[in-house]
Amino acid sequence: MPEHTPAPDELLQAVIDFLAGTVRPALSGYAAFESLIAIRLLQVAGSEFELGPSVRAGERQRLELLLGLEGDLDHLEAALTDLIRREPLSGGRREEVLEHLRISTADRLRIANPGYLLEQ
Questions:
Q1: Res. 120: pLDDT tops 60
Q2: In sequence order, what are the residues at sequence separation of 6 or more whose Cβ sits closer than 8 angstroms to the Cβ of residue 76?
């Protein structure tokens, strides 16, 4: 008999379904509200698990091209922050930075709350 080990996303979804379908209906008041928060946090964790690595890899790649630097994401984000603080960005450079920020923001919203995205 083959053994099936559930994938992490399946485990998260099982907990979400249990909380939403069994636990939350049995609660009232503030406990019911807190259960909604717990469900939402688990959904975000699932999205982070699924999308996070590719989002961070894409952001790192864009920043390396934009800044002409190499390094980890924290270093590159700090370098972008320094660039924005010290240089008045204009023309094409400004548009490149804004486009990077638009993409990064949309990617982070896809993880944290896709309902906030205007395009779907």
A1: no
A2: 60, 63, 64, 67, 69
Query: Hey, what are 36's tokens?
Result: 């909604």
Tokens matching residue 91: 């023309």
Question: How many angstroms separate the CA atoms of 5 and 7, rounded?
Answer: 6
Average pLDDT over residues 60-70: 97
8 A C-beta contact, residue 24 and residue 15: no
| Separation CA 27–CA 39 (nearest Å) | 14
pTM: 0.80
- 13: tokens are 């979804």
The full DSSP string for 8-73 is: HHHHHHHHHHHIIIIIHHH--HHHHHHHHHHHHHHHHHHHHHHHHHHHHHHHHHHHHHHHT--S-H
